[in-house]
Design a protein that fits this description.
The protein has three helices and eight strands. With 132 residues, it is of the alpha+beta class. The protein has one domain: Jelly Rolls (Sandwich). Strands 1-8-3-5-6 form a five-stranded antiparallel sheet, with helices on one face. A three-stranded antiparallel sheet has the order 2-7-4, with helices on both faces. The two termini are 12 Å apart.
Length: 132
């Protein structure tokens, strides 16, 4: 079972909680045991799992990524978004989560986040569930 979801980002760098969307899709799938893959097909976005209870964690991730990959840094890629490509590569374009008893197996504070590094834009992510 697979579905494409549209998402509109509102700033250049942003982490958006997509956990409720993923959980609802898993529930609708009626898969009791399997894996769920969340993927973004953009070269300047990413998917990550991290603490979702305290919003300062998202801010810290964005700030530290900006320290590591500054927007202006004499990059050879001349489109003005080289830092976004580097951030996307560092975080990764997908996550895999185990499904057991019809639910995602996430830690107490964990959430699934869509990461925007070159927004604001209209984006998408894909959820694919494998039964078993």
């Amino acid at each position: 079972m697979k579905q494409v979801f549209d998402i509109k980002t509102s700033s250049r760098n942003q982490l958006i909680d997509i956990t409720p969307t993923v959980e609802e899709f898993v529930k609708l799938s009626e898969v009791e045991s399997g894996i769920c893959v969340i993927y973004t097909p953009h070269t300047t976005t990413a998917i990550t799992i991290n603490e979702n209870a305290d919003p300062s964690v998202k801010a810290d991730i964005i700030r530290k990524l900006a320290d590591i990959f500054p927007h202006e840094d004499n990059y050879q890629h001349l489109e003005g978004n080289a830092d976004a490509h580097l951030k996307s590569s560092a975080i990764g374009c997908s996550e895999t989560v185990v499904i057991a008893d019809g639910s995602l197996i996430l830690g107490t504070w964990q959430g699934i986040m869509f990461c925007e590094f070159d927004g604001p834009r209209q984006r998408r992510f894909i959820i694919k569930i494998f039964n078993g």
